[in-house]
Amino acid sequence: MTTPTIELKPSARPTSAGERExxxxxxGFGRHFTDHMVTxxxxxxxxxxxxxxxPYAPIPLDPATNVLHYAQEIFEGLKAYRRPDGSVATFRPDxxxxxxxxxxxxxxxxxxxxxxxxxxxxxxxGQDKDWVPAHGGxxxxxxxxxxxxxxxxxxxxxxxxxxxxxxxxxxxxxxxGGVKPVSIWVSEDRVRAVPGGMGDAKTGGNYAAxxxxxxxxxxxxxxxxxxxxxxxxQWVEELGGMNLYxxxxxxxxxxxxxxxxxxxxxxxxxxxxxxxxxxxxxxxxISLDQWQRDSEDGTLTEVFACGTAAVITPxxxxxxxxxxxxxxxxxxxxxxxxxxxxALLDIQRGITEDKHGWMHPLG
Length: 363
Ligand code: COI
Known about the structure:
Elements: E1 7-8, H1 17-25, E2 36-43, E3 47-55, H2 66-70, E4 73-75, E5 78-82, E6 88-91, H3 93-106, H4 114-127, E7 140-149, E8 161-171, E9 182-187, H5 204-208, H6 211-219, E10 224-228, E11 236-239, E12 243-248, E13 251-255, H7 265-276, E14 280-284, H8 288-296, E15 302-307, E16 311-319, E17 325-327, H9 335-348, E18 359-361
Parallel strand pairs: 1-3, 9-10, 9-16, 13-14
Antiparallel strand pairs: 2-3, 2-8, 4-7, 5-6, 5-7, 6-18, 7-8, 10-11, 12-13, 12-15, 15-16, 16-17
Helix pairs in contact: 3-4
The chain binds 2-OXO-4-methylpentanoic acid.
InterPro entries: Aminotrans_IV, Aminotrans_IV_CS, Aminotransferase-like, B_amino_transII, BCAT-like_C, BCAT-like_N, BCAT_family
Family: Belongs to the class-IV pyridoxal-phosphate-dependent aminotransferase family.
Cofactor: pyridoxal 5'-phosphate
């Protein structure tokens, strides 16, 4: 089956420059959307077809559409950055495309070719490039590719029709308070994912499953929830929507991928960036008791969370159900966290050399 090319059908009435600039002055996260979206259909027996770039608009769905009932849905998140010369580039879109394929396989959905995924993102960013915030700040254009099962019917089975879409949203800081240390509630009873489950797939169900524990975190005055493994309830896995890193002086450690942890692109990139900066960077198992002990005796110097949306966010306070509570790096942003954050952002914004070939320039 051949890959569709994307037919451009741009809006006749895009947002005015004044209105767009007002939005870009304070974009927040996921609150505003650009003028266009890309849609590509998949039908059994026909494959991918009807790739289009069209004005951003609601998508009509029959109430019996499969995804509304059984959640056969996957998504991605990646960013486009404005570089010093005014050009635009996305960060490692091939990695998101490959993870999208892995998620599709896990959810029994068709795999979109990597080049089609990238072509769709390029088409949208190319059309809406005025929505990519200016170089200089940390703002970017967040791309949200996703796929839903569109077959109409209530049978529980893989659908015979799907819709792939890409939408885009100008993004500032993910957390409303900007880049400042977040507080973490460690959930010692609720789990996010189980061995053999779909924790490593980027699917809405994993995020829906995280909301109750996230609400519990809020009742403990915490910004985010941290999950432990589902079997022994002691090994640190990840936050509701971000991976974790532990800093032991010049050694940084992130929980080993076990199948129930999302394979974050930022997580993966930081293993390399950290080594470039002279840190020892590795994957390993960290228990909650060890986290507490190593923080209290000072060997664990910093902890941070990472993800596309939040980039790198320092962890300031940790609370657990035993009543124990401690501060990381005195509740401030640690030195390694700040260095890694800056190094990654400098690559993404085209300030330092892209020696790993991660940036995908447009046009
Ligand atoms: C991302 O970092 O891109 C995420 O997917 C996290 C969240 C916004 C769902």
